[in-house]
Specification:
The protein is built from seven helices and six strands, in the order ααββααββαβααβ. By secondary structure, the chain is mainly α. The protein binds zinc ion.
Length: about 210
Amino acid sequence: MGLKRPPSLGAGLVAVQAVDFGWVALNYAGLERAEIQPGYSALSSIHLAHMPYTHSLPAALIWSVAGALIYRLIDRRGGWGPALVIGALVFSHWLLDFLVHQPDLLLFPGGPMVGLGWWTNAPLGIAAEMAVLLGGFLIYAFSTRARSAAGNWAPWALLALLVGVQCLNWFGPTPPDIWAMLPQALAAYTLIAAAGFWLDRVREPKTITATG
Ligand SMILES: [Zn+2]
C-alpha cells in the first residue's frame, strides 16, 4: 500500500507552513495584521487580529488546491497522488491551528471566529504538538531509508531542530512586537524547509526501487 512516489519532504515542510509563509508576507504588505499580546495563550502570545487571506477556512481550502496544483506542475513524476498529499498537508495547518488557537480563525466571510484554544492549557498544548511532531517523525523515519552515511543521522538533526524551534516558541522570550517576530518566524520556517530538502538528498522513500 502507499504511494509509488511520496512527495518530497522539503515540499511537505513548505506545504504545512505555506499559510504561515503567506502570513509573514501579507503582514509586511499590510494586508493582514497579527499582534503580540503577552499572555494571550499560555503557549503563544500572537493574536491573529486580521488574517482572512491565510488563516480563514475558505482561504485554507484555496491555498490547499493551489498547493496541489503547483506541486503537480513542479513534480510530474508521481502523478496526482503526491500532489493530493501536498494539498492535504497545506490544509492540515488550518485544522491543527483550529485545535490550538484561541478563537481568532475566521470560519467564513462575515462568520464567527473559531479555535478550540488548546494553547491556553500548556500541558494539553505541549502534548498535542509533541504527538503530531513525533508521529510525523516516525512515519517519515520508517517510510524512508538512508542513501548515504549522512542519511542515517539527518532525521535526528531535523528532529532536534524541530524540537528546538518548538521549545524556543513555548519558553523563549516574547518578542516586543510583531515586527521583531516576523523575521524570526520567517527564518525558522525557511530553515525547517531547507532541512527537509537536504533530507530528500540523503534519504529516499522505501517504495522507490533501485531502478526507480
Ligand atoms: Zn498558522
